[in-house]
Write a structure and sequence with these properties.
Distance between the termini: 20 Å
CATH superfamily of the largest domain: Umud Fragment, subunit A
Largest sheet: 7 strands, antiparallel
Number of strands: 9
CATH architecture of the largest domain: Ribbon
Helix content: 25-40%
CATH topology of the largest domain: Umud Fragment, subunit A
Shape: elongated
Structural class: alpha+beta
Order of helices and strands: HHHHHHEHEEEEEEEE
CATH class of the largest domain: Mainly Beta
Strand order of the largest sheet: 3-4-9-5-6-7-8
């Protein structure tokens, strides 16, 4: 299990490497980071002291100013610097070896990880719109690799219950499956959403149905009682579910 303090510590270590590469001394680094990002010195000091992590837009600004790859700086993925010679020449031994393995296997490589995101509780999801700094959520249950592109506030949830299990549908979710949620994606009719009812402290997972000016939350399970729940004026959409990991 990856702890958030370990992630922040590793980020600061990479940040120090990037500052050294750019010829910037560590003394006064907080002020320089504030200048790069347009954030306050207090916010930059929290990054430097391993108390929080920069949001994605600030991470991009820091990487650009220091001349390093943002995925390396934020997640530790790949090389620090972009390499023009990274492509492998056609006909190389590496490609030949890969082709030989592929010819003997019916398994293709999985999608490349798009970074780590926090697995949180349903109570935390209900208050997610109030979270300013993603990495200040120190009690995330775990940090999981995400298989798809996502916004800076993305999080994951573990499905509870059978309300979204449809034995005959393409989109179906069993208890224990992991769903990835992006608060920055626009929801629309038919979207799978995480929503919070005004009279509840927890979030819920349903399909959003919009008919004329009325909105409903729909359970995908055809046997579920009260599949359609009207939500006009009584619900906040926390985020859109865009991917899942099915647990066996």
């Amino acid at each position: 299990m990856v702890q958030s303090n370990d992630i922040r510590r590793a980020f600061v270590s990479r940040l120090k490497q990037a500052l050294s590469h750019a010829g910037i001394p560590e003394w006064g680094a907080g002020a320089r980071l504030a200048e790069m990002t347009g954030k306050t010195a207090k916010a930059a000091s929290k990054w430097w002291n391993e108390e929080s992590m920069p949001a994605r837009i600030s991470m991009v600004a820091i990487a650009r100013e220091l001349g390093v790859r943002v995925e390396w700086l934020q997640y530790g993925e790949g090389e620090m610097l972009a390499r023009a010679d990274a492509a492998v020449p056609a006909g190389s031994a590496a490609i030949k070896a890969t082709s030989e393995v592929d010819s003997l296997s019916n398994v293709e490589p999985g999608p490349e990880s798009k970074g780590l995101i926090p697995l949180i509780s349903w109570v935390q999801a209900g208050a997610w719109s109030e979270v300013v700094d993603l990495y200040s959520v120190g009690d995330a249950e775990d940090w999981l690799p995400c298989p798809a592109n996502h916004g800076p506030r993305c999080f994951a949830l573990k499905v509870r219950g059978e309300s979204m299990f449809d034995p005959h549908g393409r989109r179906s979710f069993r208890e224990g499956d992991i769903v990835y949620v992006d608060p920055d994606r626009q929801h629309e009719n038919g979207s799978l959403v995480i929503a919070k009812l005004t009279d509840s402290q927890e979030a819920t997972f349903k399909q959003l149905v919009i008919e004329d000016e009325k909105r409903y939350l729909k359970a995908l399970n055809p046997s579920w009682p009260e599949r359609m729940m009207p939500i006009n004026g009584s619900c906040q959409i926390v985020g859109v579910v865009f991917s899942k990991v099915e647990m066996f």
